[in-house]
Amino acid sequence: MRLAKFLAHAGVASRRGAEEIIRAGRVTIADERVTDPARDVDADSGVAVDGRFLEGPEERMVFIVHKPPGVLSTARDTHGRRTVIDLVPAAGARLYPVGRLDVDSTGLILVTNDGDLAQRMTHPSFEVPRTYRATVRPSPVPEHALRTLREGVDLDDGRTLPAKVRQVKPGLLELTIREGRNHQVKRMCEAVGHRVRTLQRIRFGALRLDELPEGAHRRLKASEVEGLRQGGAPTGR
Ligand code: URA
Description:
Elements: H1 3-9, H2 15-23, E1 27-29, E2 32-33, E3 47-49, E4 52-53, E5 62-67, E6 96-98, E7 106-112, H3 115-122, E8 130-137, H4 143-151, E9 154-155, E10 158-159, E11 164-169, E12 172-177, H5 184-191, E13 195-204, E14 207-208, E15 217-219, H6 222-230
Parallel strand pairs: 7-13
Antiparallel strand pairs: 1-2, 1-3, 3-4, 5-7, 5-15, 6-7, 8-12, 8-13, 9-10, 11-12, 13-14
Helix pairs in contact: 1-2
Bound molecules: uracil (URA).
The site of uracil (URA) has 8 residues, from helix 5.
């Protein structure tokens, strides 16, 4: 099996994340540093990350977390700040977040050790929908700006895909986008002359934040995980 896939199956990171870890020189095979993600390995190869041997696949776990503001959506922070992983006590499992939310953003984020699922949810080719609620200023947002947001906005990394956008009430937008570029919602709104003051993700694929309190988490049922793998459309509204 390819080394990157092996790491993903062992719950280290998504496949893409595993490739970065390998290229960064953090992986050894039988004490020899390896930087080629395509190296062929198996459970007897003696694969270690940061000097810690991988003991084969962990039980797969997927959690939905309601990220509060000020909490980071990285797996670790070099300055010891709180991360979404700290909100999910799961003894010994190597969990990591699926995708990113800005530190001041809130709402739905997934945390898992399932590299295939992380890939399924974040790879641009799957165009998994994410829905956000954004409060913006100035308010209200005029119809021509809403139309531009829906049709596609020219950003410095290219035009955005068509989006669903409605103004729930003056200055409160609900946007569904099928991409996960850095600061995408903030940049889209800025491009049409509006600054995002608060941003919350309320849906990701078939999952909804619903009544999960801020800071809380819950483990997804097998049927919910299967729904994500099959790429179920968001329900309701
Ligand atoms: N878009 C943003 O601008 N920020 C986020 O956290 C998520 C989407």
